[in-house]
Write a structure and sequence with these properties.
The complex is a heterodimer of chains A (480) and B (242).
Chain A: E1 4-6, H1 9-15, H2 20-33, H3 43-50, H4 68-74, H5 85-106, H6 203-216, H7 230-248, H8 259-262, E2 269-272, E3 278-281, E4 296-298, E5 331-335, E6 340-342, E7 347-352, E8 371-381, E9 386-391, E10 406-411, H9 415-418, E11 421-422, E12 425-426, E13 430-435, H10 437-446, E14 453-460, E15 469-479
Parallel strand pairs in A: 1-4
Antiparallel strand pairs in A: 2-3, 5-15, 6-15, 7-14, 8-13, 8-15, 9-10, 9-14, 11-12
Helix pairs in contact in A: 2-5, 5-7, 6-7
Chain B: H1 3-15, H2 19-34, H3 53-71, H4 76-84, H5 91-123, H6 126-140, H7 144-152, H8 163-190, H9 199-214, H10 220-236
Helix pairs in contact in B: 2-3, 3-5, 4-5, 5-8, 6-8, 6-10, 7-8, 9-10
Classes of the chains: A alpha+beta (480), B mainly alpha (242).
Chain lengths: 480, 242
Amino acid sequence: MAVRTREEIWKLHNATPWHSTLLWYAQGVAAMQKRAINDPLSWRFQAAVHGFHPSATPFLPGETKPTSAIQAKYWNQCQHGSWFFLPWHRMYLHHFEKILMAEIAALGGPQDWALPYWNYSNASNPHALELPPEFTAAKLPNGKPNPLRVAQRAWNAVGNVDVFPSDVDLSCLKETNFDGPPVAPGFGGPQTGFAHSGGTSGMLESLPHNNVHGAVGGFMGSFVTAGLDPLFWVHHANIDRLWEVWLLRPPVHNNPTLVKWLQATGATFDFYDSSGTAITMVPKDVLSTSASPLYYVYDDVTDPLAPAVGAGAGPAAAGPGTPVTSAPVPELLGATAAAVPIGAGVSTAQLDLQPPQQAQAGTLAASPVRAFLNLENIQGTGEAVNYAVYLNVPAGADPKDYERHRAGSVSTFGVHESSQTGGHQTGSGRSLVLEVTDVVDRLSIDGNWDPSKLQVTFAPQRAVPASNNMKVGRVSLYFG
Amino acid sequence: MSPTASGYSSRLQRTYPEWWVLLISAIAWLVLLSWPNHANDPSMCPPIHRGQASWWFEQSLGWLLMIIAMMFPMATSHVRSVAARSFWNRRNRAISTFLLGFLSTWSVMGLLMVGAGAWLVKWTDAAVITVFTLLVAVGWQFAPWKKWAILACHRTRSFAPRGWRGDWELICYGAFHGYACSVSCIAMMALMLPLSHNGLLMITITGVGLQERTRMNRRNRDLILTVSLIVAGAATAPILAV
């Protein structure tokens, strides 16, 4: 089988408006949307594989759902907060792409169509953070409604989405280990069994993955509706591409070699293929994109960051492919005693720090010690919102005036669902980790770092619905 | 302690803070496997002792050792997480308080189980009780609360990093985890009472429990495997009394 090439949506748009790849994407989506939800090849069935809630998924009058057994086996299967996040979504995209290819071929389109991706982090493209017109226009060139535009997105005043540079930061690529302990979860996420929600997001899952979901909003802002937005698939194609970028990035990065990851011990991943036949996959089936059964490559997997210097020197970086558990667990320096509400306004957490007893103290840049800010058990209800996170901003000051204090950005994507119990939800909420080594170092150099106290400030990046009610169970800082 | 041994110990503590919990579990296994068992005794234990203080002591101690041996390994991920989320100088204290809560719940469950066993054996013989508990253990696998319990076994909680508040929240965390764990495994553990601390059955139940913990999206084949193992373990335990 020929190897297909997944291409970037802005590159396609710049080549020609309504490039055939995007036009066929729209027509294929429209064809899938016409199918009933109990058809495994339908748009809504495929979206439900990621997540489903009867109150969130649109139904047609008189429509019947699949049997309970089918729902239990195939729906609500997405893996988050887990080292299965990347391989599961690769499998999911593969089957979706094959289903869409079959639809496109049936419509008279090309046999070698490939899913495009959205490279929102492309520094050479001034429009990278925006959606190209193919995803915002109300109509297709033939005058029919454009299925690539979704009304529910968090549209801004100029009819696009507000994705900020901090939402698409690629610092995750600097991470050396694929997995890690929950307080420093590595590039791909911590070791788990089947993990539909809860747990700690890996660095790539946290940023840019979660933040792009939160910034686009609407269907994209929730586990149970994300797959209903055509942008979901081009977003996840980019996340899948970044996995390839990380693997190719020097000096060397490897996937886990443990059998329990390769064979998905403790999990079963079920899908329907493009012929409607049930199929089960494990991570070792999807390690090479250009080989069977995937047969695709990306048009650009160059390293977007400056070459890594001394990568792998950190204690948490136990070495390429090294099992997580052989890396020392970073040391807690301080944590809040109570939950920290995060809402429509700026909120602050105060931490009393104690000197590190095992990790080395001092300027971080001069030592292999790394610093991790943990937001543990974020729980609550409401829509996904992205928050800018700052360290040691003076009380009452506007955080926006303290850019050197900025630690990064986090999203509450999935918090609502993972705070619930039932289905596959544990009710733990979401836990996120920001590596703050650089900002701690900057503050130390500027004289703004107090080793006995830390103030963490959360500032929402867009208007927060009044109905949102979320809190961070604990804010904590680790060195290791 | 030599510097090398000290360094190794420090590395072990930093990398595997849960090591001593697994060591205690291993010791409990050794004690139980060397303890004379009554798997072939149709009356569960010599009737002359049943109901006496020494009987209750022996039964309670046996239950406690079984929980330490069989259930501590299932709590390892929480123990590791609790240690990682505690100050360096509080890691062992945090693990201990978490396990105190965990054992408290299981101890209450154990007293109820032992009491129920002592009452039942007055009315019928151990073989009937064995069959009855086996049926309950198999039926339990299909109960809706079983799925709830497996999910709840994975639920994490935040806790204060310092002071008595931190200790109390860790005890509550451990107690909740013990509750979820006992709802998931109590029916299987009940089999241990009529069959005593049979080594083969202990290994079977521990294996089943560990397997269930990771397979949160259980399929029919998992259920068939689980039920088969429980039945096989219970059936062979009296024959291959270890």
